[in-house]
Amino acid sequence: MPWEAAEVGARCAAPWAWLLVTLVLAGCSDPGPKPAELKAFKPVAAARVAWSVSAGASGNYVFTPAIFDGDVFAAGGGGVSRFDVASGKRRWRAELPANTILSGGMTVGSGLVLAGTAKGVVHAWSLDGAPLWQSQVSSEVLSAPAVSDGVVVVRSGDGRIHGLDAKDGTRRWEYVATLPPLLIRSSAGVALSGGSVFAGLPGGKLVALSLASGAVLWESALSTPRGETELERTTDVTTTPLVEENGVCAGAFQGRVGCFELQRGALLWARNASTASDMGADDRNFYFADERGHLHAVGRDSGATLWKQTVLAYRDLGAPAATGRFVVVGDFDGYLHFFDREDGALVARIALDGGRISAQPLVVGEGNLLVQTREGTLHAVTVR
Question: Model pTM?
Answer without folding.
Answer: 0.91
